[in-house]
Design goal:
Elements (H helix, E strand, L loop, with lengths): L42 E2 L11 H9 L13 H11 L6 E5 H13 L5 E5 L4 H9 L3 E5 L8 H6 L5 E7 L11 H10 L5 E5 L15 H5 L4 E6 L11 E5 L2 H10 L7 H12 L1 H24 L3 E3 L5 E5 L8 H10 L2 E2 L1 E3 L4 E8 L3 H22 L3
Parallel strand pairs: 1-11, 3-4, 3-5, 5-6, 6-7
Antiparallel strand pairs: 2-8, 7-8, 9-10, 10-13, 12-13
Bound molecules: pyridoxal-5'-phosphate.
Pyridoxal-5'-phosphate binds next to α3.
Length: about 375
């Protein structure tokens, strides 16, 4: 046997399998933490999941789908497609179904991006967009945000001949802010027609502002807008991986050519159909957020944190940048009490934590712990 060679290998070592340019430069997506060492059942407020769980009707549909485990799904998801078309009054053939909206972003990127192309997103844009772009050798351009909000003019300033996709989560993650319907319309009007504007509506149902729209109406007659939605948040079906996009017909048809033949499952399709019909569960979810989001914002501000105004099912809180009351120390303090929140240093926000709006007991536990954290540190700061 030969002696083992050194690891990691030289990137240009001859005769070794080598990924395409850029692949090894991608930082893998880091999901919100799900476990705390030594704590059996932590409260997970780190991934913006639905703390009410999921619709009982969706669970029944999921269980019934166990009878069909041996079968391949309808790859085009005909029944779900028809249900979505009816629910949103859109054309079924313009719908793209994906293994989560993540896959819709990945398929759009694969179909429209190549080496030398670029995408434009906000300074704090959702991590999945950049991964999909870089996987296709495209450049990621970041437009500065103002007060944690997408700045339409800064986005437009990043666009050039090689821009193929522009991504806006509205409301945004991790900031929680939204862009008004007028601003989106102004952006679209100024955008060159070769650029696809992707409006990611993962949190759109949680935004109650009168001047907000998910963009579906604008998309109906546009040749370069894709609006995406997910079953992961409002509908509480993150585990089943179902997202969708409403695209111009030509875009939907392009993506259809590269879609994996069976990218959504029978159980996922069935649960999604049931969830769409469960207006009671949707109302309870929205009611929970509408009740506790303002309370959390007010309480966090009350203990001296900088809270970014949120239109989503989470809030972003800013901590002092020096001393003992940093975001990192707060995250550890909360974890020691079984509370998982999301550190967002990876988004260029090392002084913030993102906290999903939970059930009453969760929200109260977070505020109690953070009051203690801020208060204790205040006392500890004082010279004795
Ligand atoms: C959670 C989330 C999604 C949904 O992703 P899925 O792949 O559908 O689970 C999309 N966009 C943003 C900004 C999100 O935070």
């Amino acid at each position: 046997m030969n002696a083992p060679t050194s690891f990691p290998p030289e990137p240009d070592a001859p005769g070794r399998p080598t990924p395409r340019p850029g692949i090894l430069g991608i930082a893998p997506y880091t999901p919100g933490k799900a476990t705390i060492p030594g704590i059996a059942a932590p409260i997970k407020l780190s991934a913006n999941e639905n703390l009410l769980g999921s619709s009982p009707l969706a669970k029944e549909a999921f269980k019934a789908a166990a009878e069909d485990l041996a079968l391949y799904p309808d790859g085009r998801g005909g029944a779900l497609r028809a249900t979505l078309a009816d629910h949103y009054r859109i054309e079924p053939e313009r719908i793209i179904l994906g293994c989560g909206t993540d896959e819709v972003f990945a398929m759009l990127s694969q179909a429209y991006l190549g080496a030398g192309d670029n995408i434009v997103q906000g300074e704090y844009g959702f991590g999945a967009y950049a991964i999909a772009a870089r996987a296709n050798e495209a450049e990621v351009r970041f437009a500065p945000e103002r007060h944690f909000r997408i700045d339409v003019d800064a986005m437009l300033a990043q666009v050039d001949d090689r821009t193929r996709l522009m991504f806006i989560a509205n409301p945004a993650n991790p900031t929680g802010t939204f862009v008004s319907a007028q601003e989106i319309a102004r952006l679209h009007a100024a955008l060159p027609p070769h650029v696809i504007l992707v409006l990611d509506g993962a949190y759109s149902e949680y935004c109650l502002e009168p001047d907000f729209s998910d963009g579906l109406d604008l998309a109906r007659s546009a040749s370069n807008i894709v609006v995406t939605h997910t079953f992961s948040k409002l509908h509480g079906l993150a585990s089943l991986r179902l997202g969708w996009g409403y695209a111009p017909l030509e875009v939907a048809e392009a993506v259809e050519r590269i879609r994996l033949p069976f990218n959504t499952s029978i159980a996922g399709q069935a649960a999604a159909i049931a969830a769409l019909g469960d207006t009671d569960f949707q109302a309870r979810t929205l009611d929970l957020t509408e009740t506790w989001r303002p309370w959390l914002i007010q309480q966090l501000a009350g203990i001296g944190l900088d809270v970014v105004p949120s239109s989503a099912n989470f809030v972003l809180a800013g901590f002092p940048t020096d001393g003992a009351r940093t975001a990192q120390a707060a995250e550890a303090f909360l974890a020691a009490r079984g509370l998982l929140v999301r550190g967002v240093a990876g988004y260029g926000l090392p002084d913030h934590l993102r906290i999903t709006v939970g059930l009453e007991a969760h929200n109260r536990a977070v505020i109690e712990a953070l009051s203690e954290f801020m208060g204790d540190v205040v006392r500890a700061d004082r010279p004795s």
